[in-house]
Design goal:
Length: 317
């Protein structure tokens, strides 16, 4: 990678992550969600193959109905030494247009093993087949199921967190907003480089060279979710949480992003919105880290630090 072609990358990228940009990267046209889903699904399968292995974790499948009559799959990841106490509802990434429970099974099993805190992953429906607030409502349905089955699962109702990465960030944060409105307790929201703002579609030249999730990808995904409303004044915070103006009484938040991630600024601003409303916030901006750095480079020092911080927050629930 020559300095002339990628001066910003040469200057800022964590050296342990440089290999992520050593070869060609797939490109899909803006608006072609089907092509992006195909490419992204292959990418998630690759990342899943890099996820750490775990032992002594059982995985149990459940289902729950949605408000509109659909059925969602849920997966419960529990280590055999888990004691009664907290739990985490996990919302997978994938730009809200791709992703699956399978692609996160190894990662969540590892979190459950390392923290001894059980994880419930929710198979929310994806855009464009589902759109608008439907994704956040699906996540809320998973949260409600966890509350309703807390006693049999050994879960403390007041120690349930919502955790998400990337494209899972919007429906997760949206579900936290719904939970506030419906008075369902959430102990914390743990948002890993979350995708929150439908207006973030114009390329920043300083970030374009390290965009593992590109501005074209972002526009495609938000258009799939919101249609012609994307970028307009007719988008609710439940759909795009960066639109939130009243953050009072939302759950305490842990937010991570990389300083080479196209979500960097929206994540920092969301943390500021929460903090201004008196919500406790822990914000990490990892130097030299692009989007998805942890799953693409699991042995890098920045990844190890990030996982240590996440596990600290999870075990403190």
């Amino acid at each position: 990678m020559s300095t002339a072609q990628h001066p910003f990358v040469q200057y800022a990228l964590d050296p342990e992550l440089a290999h992520l940009f050593s070869g060609p990267r797939p490109h899909t046209a803006r608006g072609d969600w089907a092509a992006l889903r195909e490419v992204g699904t292959a990418g998630q399968a690759y990342m899943a193959s890099l996820d750490p292995a775990s032992t002594d974790v059982t995985r149990t499948r459940y289902t729950t109905p949605t408000a509109d009559g659909a059925t969602l799959e849920l997966r419960w990841h529990r280590h055999r030494h888990t004691a009664p106490g907290p739990a985490v509802l996990y919302v997978h990434g994938g730009g809200m247009i791709l992703g699956s429970l399978d692609a996160y099974e190894r990662l969540l099993s590892w979190y459950a093993e390392q923290s001894k805190v059980p994880f419930l992953s929710v198979g929310y429906r994806l855009a464009p087949e589902s759109c608008g607030t439907a994704l956040a409502e699906d996540v809320y349905a998973g949260l409600l199921w966890l509350h309703q089955h807390a006693e049999e699962l050994g879960v403390d109702l007041h120690r349930i967190a919502i955790m998400a990465d990337s494209g899972g960030g919007a429906p997760a944060a949206g579900a936290a907003i719904l939970a506030r409105e419906r008075e369902l307790p959430v102990a914390r929201q743990i948002l890993i480089y979350p995708m929150l703002d439908d207006r973030n579609v114009d390329a920043d030249p300083g970030l374009a060279g390290t965009a593992t999730w590109t501005y074209d990808n972002n526009a495609t995904a938000w258009q799939a979710l919101l249609g012609e409303r994307a970028g307009s004044d007719h988008v609710s915070p439940v759909e795009a949480p960066a639109r939130l103006t009243d953050a009072a009484t939302l759950p305490a938040a842990y937010i991570e992003t990389g300083d080479l991630d196209i979500f960097r600024t929206e994540d920092i601003l969301y943390a500021a919105t929460l903090a201004r409303a008196g919500v406790p916030v822990e914000l990490h901006v990892h130097p030299g880290a692009p989007h998805g750095f942890d799953r693409l480079a699991p042995h890098a020092a920045v990844t190890r630090r990030a996982y240590q911080d996440r596990l600290r927050v999870i075990t403190s629930l």
